[in-house]
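In this section we walk through a basic example: taking a raw amino acid sequence and producing a predicted 3D structure, encoded as discrete structure tokens. The instruction is simple. Fold the sequence below.
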Amino acid sequence: MRNLIKPVLLVVALLPVSMSVTAEPPHKDTLPPGLQKKADRGEPLPPGWQKKLDGYERGDYLDAEFLRYGRVRDLDDRRQRVEVEDKVYTIIKDTREIVDVLRGRR
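The resulting token sequence is shown next.
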């Protein structure tokens, strides 16, 4: 019985440490405050975000941040059109899967 108590106590002692390591980032569901201010003023995305956007293709899943930053319109009960910078994404509403990408000129 004593051999069982030590491992259980060790697990209980380390549980809070492991939970703090897997904590969610502070801006998981929202844009960082500085970026939100820029978005509200209509300024373009920073280069890092633009680079992240350039990698999206048909079949990928659009990050939730772009739904808040871009202009979103419902096409029907299943699909949405998301306009971000010079790109237009048609996505499935429930999963955010990209079904079409239109790119503007640079």
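Looking at the output, two observations stand out. The longest strand covers residues 79-84. Residues 22-29 have pLDDT under 50 and may be disordered. In the next section we compare this with other chains.
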